[in-house]
Amino acid sequence: MTFRAVILGLIGVVFISSYTYFNDWIMRQTMFVGNFMPISVYGVLVIFLAFIFPLWRRLTRKGALNRSEIAVILVLVLAACAIPGSNLLRLFTPALIMPHRYELTEPGWQQQGVMNLVPEGMLVDISENPDEVLGGYTRGLMEAADSLSVRDVPWSAWRAPLFFWIPIILSLWIALVSLAVVVHRQWADHEHLPYPIVTFTKALLPEANGESSPIFKNPVFWLGLIGVFAIHSYNYLNVWFPTYLFGQIPLGIDFSSLTELSDTFELGGGRTVLEMYTIYFTVVAVAYFLPKEVSLSLGIGPFIWVFIAGLFATYGVGTTGWQGTWPFGLTMDAMMIMGGYFGMLVVLLYTGRQYYAAVFRRALGFSASEPIENSAVWGARFFMLGLMFFTIYTARLVGLDWPIALLFALGCVSVYLVMGRLLAETGLFFIVVTGTPATILWAIFGARALGPELLFIMFMLSLVLFYDTREALMPYVVNGLKLADDVKAKVGRTAFFIVVALMVGLAVGIPTTLYFQYERGVDVSLWKIEQAKRPFNETISIMQRLDAQGQLEEAGQVTGLRRFMEASPHRNGLIAFVSAAGLVLLFSALRLRFTGWPLHPVMFLVWSTYAGNAFAQSFLFGWLLKILITRFGGAGVYQRCKPIMFGLIAGEMLGGVIPMFVSFVFYMVTGDIPRPFEVMPG
């Protein structure tokens, strides 16, 4: 790990953290990040390694970046992808200021006094100059064509909420990075997880001697790359010049009319699944490298869920609502997804129980029976410190009881850990979780035991820390540590610089985002902005329900461990939770007991989610392709087809990043909004 690699990586962090808002909100293009394999990053990587790096090597071999340096740069940039988009800043700043606007426009807010539940410092203080702080945020402060001076942004109004939130965010992120260090050796060396995205990345990196990867000399690779790139390029041209071309090349077929063949399938939402039939070449290639039971499970899972939901609907039982609404509400699909994650957590903890026990024994100063590397020991220590700080901070300064604060933190860490496991084991680079840690605690304790104030605080924490998980930090770090380890970079040192990158990204991303928002204003009708209502509206619904039951005055009066004695669990919610966890445990046991068991428990973690629906058909196609090649061509043909699969991924990355370059140039030259073009689901 060299100094210049770290500096170049941090420069990339600055760019990702500052440019993403401009791309997503001002030019209104497809998400600059969007998933755990962002086209903006991997597309540039393909361009650099396929075209720029060989030329650089010809000009000067001594000055060219080596394999390890490129990997370190990539790891730092990918970690920063958790900052500017869905994982944090897309909702962070609206959540801190827009409630003041909704207090004036939503009649129920003043009636219920919901703003009185907000802890001091959680939201922006607009009292001194509401027109500039709130009005400037929504309508913009830039006059005519003049640019906004940095000094004209009301920074002082944001100082208190940023000091309130940043320790919460950083303590959770440090705990997650540290935990990724702990599990790395178990997953990479003891369980030999495949890490499909890392496998593709390493195939592109230069050789140890500095020569370009041999994959770029393979004509089969270029066949896949050029074919997919040509398809996406033609479709992009068709977006701009539809009258001069022959229409888009279809990448899928709308099978929604087939839902009429089955009432059960239609009642379960089958039309939505079949409408999303699109082939994503990257997913097909990832499926090709996976064990057949994994890709089959990811492919058929959404269809099985549709039939289950349809059966429930036939008997008048809905899967989308008992109390409340997405994402915090107690719904069958949310509780089953959360249960699936809990079941998978139990499996991975049981599988690595001896190693993890040894790591934490060493971390606490006790001896262990097996040798443990120092990075894992220090990772365990910083994980416990981060978790402890999060718990104490949210208990003393935010207002959560310490048992609830600890359980909430463990809920966040558990789900994110399993997400990292999903990416390492399946290559599923688009993961959207239904439900939140607040949902689970609501189901366990009940609204009466928790009370509106604690529920509101957990909803706000979930809005900031756990809302749209498609760009969560943990999976980036899990993949990054594996890549760094494979190129002989030290895992512990890499984790340290990941934390540095996160701090730099926050220091750049937050002020840049606020500057753009105050310069141009925000569209208050956008879905992203209106999500700031949800914690408040959900809390109002709970207050009204408690009031109707005559329990509002006494709700949340008990504190500490006494809250467990007052718990009134949500029966149906816990049944769904335990059922899903049981399915994961059962299928995991069947996989261990029967070598030919055809399904993987990962199915129960994605089967009712948007991400599962979006990629299901592509996983099925990749599974079928692998079956046909291995059956009729054998192992030799399967190995010879691997380069073309790498080419499919590289071609899709290239086909997505070129439109991003074109859009930027078009906007800079004309000032008009470019026409958006999506390669991955938005």
> Which class of secondary structure composition applies to the elements?
mainly alpha
Number of helices: 29
The description of the largest β-sheet is: none
Q: State the end-to-end distance.
A: 35 Å
N-to-C series of helices and strands: HHHHHHHHHHHHHHHHHHHHHHHHHHHHH
**Strand content of the residues, in percent?**
under 5%
Q: Roughly how much helix do the residues carry, as a percent range?
A: 55-70%
Unreliable stretches covering 5 or more consecutive residues: none
How many β strands by DSSP?
Answer: 0
Mean of the pLDDT scores?
93
How are the secondary structure elements laid out?
Layout: H1 3-26, H2 39-59, H3 67-80, H4 89-105, H5 107-112, H6 130-139, H7 155-190, H8 196-204, H9 219-240, H10 263-267, H11 270-275, H12 281-289, H13 292-314, H14 332-351, H15 353-363, H16 374-398, H17 402-426, H18 437-445, H19 447-465, H20 473-486, H21 491-520, H22 527-530, H23 534-548, H24 562-565, H25 571-593, H26 603-606, H27 610-632, H28 634-640, H29 642-670
Helix pairs in contact: 1-3, 1-21, 2-29, 3-20, 3-21, 6-21, 7-16, 7-17, 7-20, 7-21, 8-20, 9-29, 12-27, 12-29, 13-27, 14-17, 14-25, 15-16, 16-17, 17-18, 17-20, 18-19, 19-23, 20-21, 27-28
